[in-house]
């Protein structure tokens, strides 16, 4: 990300107020606030950075499986593409990205995170789709039209 922390706008973070972090020179075990993740059983997380990292690792494992599932659908979509040019549909790409941005607030995800993650997913999926169809259409180009590298 370019710019400085001062250039961040609230919409880059959340539409909710950001947490107030009191300035202190004291050495604190937990720098600010109380645990803010509440699970369905009523317990909260986290009381240590290790717990936070364990949670992130667990979510990352789930994300990898979901991305694998999505890639399988992307591969399946190629069966319905009749030409090399029909692989990338920019209007559909924009629709998917905007849908993620619009839904982000309802799951308390910063919209900028949804936008950037979905842009990366879409762009890498386009490249993957071209890789799948290239042998089918015997297209000589090695460049992938409209896909960011």
Automatic annotation (TrEMBL):
InterPro entries: Chorismate_II_sf, Chorismate_mutase-related, CM_dom_sf, CM_II_prokaryot. It comes from the Eukaryota. Residues 43-133 form the Chorismate mutase domain. GO terms for molecular function: chorismate mutase activity. GO terms for biological process: chorismate metabolic process; salicylic acid biosynthetic process. It holds the Pfam family CM_2. Keywords: Isomerase. SUPFAM superfamilies: Chorismate mutase II. The keyword Isomerase applies. PANTHER family: CHORISMATE MUTASE. This is Chorismate mutase domain-containing protein. It comes from Serpula lacrymans var. lacrymans (strain S7.3) (Dry rot fungus). The lineage of its organism: Eukaryota, Fungi, Dikarya, Basidiomycota, Agaricomycotina.
């Amino acid at each position: 990300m370019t710019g400085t922390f001062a250039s961040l706008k609230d919409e880059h973070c959340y539409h909710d107020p950001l947490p107030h972090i009191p300035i202190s020179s004291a050495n604190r075990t937990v720098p600010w606030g109380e645990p803010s993740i509440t699970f369905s059983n009523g317990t909260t997380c986290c009381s240590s950075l290790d717990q936070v990292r364990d949670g992130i690792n667990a979510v990352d494992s789930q994300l990898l499986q979901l991305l694998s599932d999505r890639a399988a659908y992307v591969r399946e979509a190629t069966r319905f593409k009749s030409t090399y040019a029909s692989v990338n549909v920019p209007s559909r790409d924009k629709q998917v990205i905007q849908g993620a941005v619009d839904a982000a607030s309802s799951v308390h995800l910063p919209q900028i995170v949804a936008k950037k993650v979905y842009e990366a997913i879409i762009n890498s999926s386009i490249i993957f789709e071209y890789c799948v169809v290239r042998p089918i259409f015997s297209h000589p180009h090695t460049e992938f039209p409209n896909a960011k590298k």
